[in-house]
Design a protein that fits this description.
Number of helices: 24
Strand content: 15-25%
Helix content: 40-55%
Largest sheet: 6 strands, mixed
Strand order of the largest sheet: 10-11-12-8-13-14
Number of strands: 23
Radius of gyration: 42 Å
Length: 736
Amino acid sequence: MTTAAERALITLEYPAIRALLAERSSFTPGRELAEALTPVTDAREADRLQDETAAARDLLRAQPSAGIGGARDIRDSLRRARLGGSLEPLQLIEIADTIRAAEKLFADVHPYPPLAAKARFARPPRDVAEAIEHAIAGTGEVLDRASPRLGSLRAALRGAQARLQQRLDGLLRSPDLSRALQEQLITQRGGRYVVPVKAEMRGAVKGIVHDQSASGATVFIEPLEILEANNALREAELAESAEVRRVLDELSRRVERAGEDLDSVTTALAALDLLLAKAELAAHLECERPVLDSHGILDLVGARHPLLVERGTGVVPIDVRLGSDFRALVITGPNTGGKTVTLRTIGLLVLMAASGLQIPAARGSRVPVVRRVFADIGDEQSIAQSLSTFSSHLRNVVATLAEAERDDLALLDELGAGTDPDEGAALAMAVLETLLERGVLVAATTHYPELKAFALNTPGVSNASVEFDAESLRPTYRLHIGLPGSSNAFAIASRLGLDNAVLTRAESHLSELHRSLERTLREAERSARRSRTEADELLLQSRRALRQAESAREGAAKRNLVDEARAALAEAETTRRSAATPEQAPGATVPIAVGSPVHVEGVSEPGTLLSIDDRGMADVAAGPLRLRVPASSLRPARAAQESHLATRPVIGGSAAAVSLQLDLRGARAEEALEVLDRYLNDAAVAGVDRLRIVHGKGTGALRTAVREVLSRHPLVRAHEPAGAAEGGDGATIVRL
């Protein structure tokens, strides 16, 4: 039974990389190594493999013709020799060619230590190659010089053939025999020379009948006149054949004695063939050597999926990072926007790097060496196995959770999809939390707004989005770290002509959480774009000032102006880098009380401070969002907002951090109402103004009791059934 990590190799198409490698192998044992290639889990071992591939690329740049040459797979011949068998001439020639190819390649790799190490213990038995080449021609013919006896035997054989031919020529000229022959020719039957005689005249030719034609009209007779000459020739042939067998057997025994050396030569050739194949594949895919990281940090720049490159598909390079300031990445955006390809690219490049393969990414790209990679990617819905999309995904997630540990990488596509959105999102968050607690690196894709909020709210988790061009209705396939994406369903529907009234009605059904997230996203995108534009303009101005200063000719004035311009340019570069890679901006630490209105850096809506723990992390309710952020990122809300918020009733007391949702399902009505009352008071103390009470549908008794209490509770301003996206009649939205 295969493990989840083993199945991930197939999911990520690692066997296709093996196949590309095998295609570039010139040696059967090397091809077998390519087909059996597996990633290593030790960073030092992976770095050694990368050294070997880099050296192989250097060798091919210096000597493009370097390679296996005439080496052949001689393993079957070696096995036969070990069993005492005699090898055929062509098998011996293959062994000699392999020895010569090894000698040349080992000399070629000598200046490259990582490659030379592969041949360090291989000793090509040159004497065996010389003996074979002395005895056997390249065509496989055993030469007369193979042994002194063979030379004399072949001389005797040629003499016997000449004498026999002379006797046969005399017979053919005989008038008596000519009348009896069917044709004027000499042929062979059973290794004996014979003449074709008419069947009706067989009595006219004295000799031994060896055969008869299919029609019976001709018999093949060995005349008595050539019997002795035939015997002499046959004896000479048998003697020559026996000596040839003796020569081949002697060479075979030499091969047998050199078996260990030939085994080591074959092993070294296979290893070098694999490395040369790695180098050729790297050149073909325009790869670079990755920087291997043993601390779980991934930082890919200009990364391309190798199989898309191989197919000639236009590939948009992506930049993606993971494992430095966050260990989980939640990728959102439209369908076919590149989310899944991003996961596949991450997984496949991690596997390639750990296998000693260079990767199609910019130089300096950093790749972690992980213990295992887990992947749930694509729809494995199966009618035969009665598995829905959700069940097939969940089966893979369960297997991942059963095995994944620290220093593993998990890639989860459409996490929690295929079921009730609320339950699917909750399950997805629980899976991510579990993997984070274990120290697993995680990259996941989703359409759930709850997961976008989870990524905003949870330390160690970051959002990312694939870009979409709303004008062309096409994805750009670019990946942006730090910002959640939108599915763009409404933009696409509008461009395709869906009635505005329908779109307006659809927007009214969106949950408040979804609307707030979309507003935050749009403001963050505008802010980032504005920052980049301003930084670019500042950089352009500074560079222009520097050029003007350097073209000046005044001495002291020139120096001062240049210095000022250079300082401005350095400042502009810093500003531009900050804009290109936004980081959490430290704000002034302000003694803000729990319950006061605050702004959170990067969030468009003001919120209410719920609590601050000992580690300096603050819980803030911003509309339907519950955020957990550093307290240093908070600042007071503007006066207008403060005065607006101050019109709310002030309730004394204090409360711990309050969830924005209360789940009463499964509780008895009396217990549920008691919990509900405490929850409403705590929420009011914390300054929360919108709550979601989940009571379920069931018989309706609990729902009726809850809504009756809400209708007369002094802290409740209004309540209404939840929208379809928030549970419908199974939940109630409360305004305090």
